[in-house]
Amino acid sequence: MEAILRNQYVVDWITIILFSSIFFMVLAKTTYYSRFLNYIILPFNNKYIFLYQKKDKLFNWFSIFFSIFQLLNFSLFIYFINKIFFQFPEEHQFGAYLIIFTSLFLFLVIKILLQFGNGFIFNANKVISEIVFKKLAYLNYSGIVMLFANLILNYVLQESKTVIFISILLVFIINAIGWITTLRNHQNFLASNFVYFILYLCALEIAPIIIVGNYLIDRSL
Question: How far is Cα 211 from Cα 204, in angstroms, rounded to an integer?
Answer without folding.
Answer: 11
